[in-house]
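call fold(seq) -> tokens
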Amino acid sequence: MRHFDFSPLYRATVGFDQIADLMDRVLASDVQSPSYPPYNIEKTADDTYRISIAVAGFGQNDLNIEVKENALIVAAKKSDEDSERTYLHRGIATRAFERRFHLADHVKVLGASHQDGMLHIDLAREIPEALKPRRIEIAAADATPVLEGNKVN
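ret:
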């Protein structure tokens, strides 16, 4: 695997260090991501998303969802209730798993539901008012600048 040096990007940009870190992390991962359990990521509206994970065979008490440092961690471990059962064929995989999703800045987990063997996790991007675009009025050259209704001395 090739290694790319992103240090010139750090010199020429301000505030884009997370993008460079993300690119570095993606390019550095030689290991294939696990395919179990299968999942979908759906955009339900402009700023809302839904992650649906197929968790057939797992009950609500077997699943654990945690948000930690911009990472959504979904883990499952089957309890030992099936130890007294004897299977002739066991085709439903209920092996333990841990799936991680990296969340972008300002993405919040709204809630989760478990229905018909699917775990649905609803997410929303909530951009703070301070980060939303705002219009800056341009004053005439001979006028005194005004900040939030107060004149500057």
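Strands lie at 39-43, 48-54, 63-68, 71-76, 97-102, 107-115, 118-125, 146-147, 150-151.
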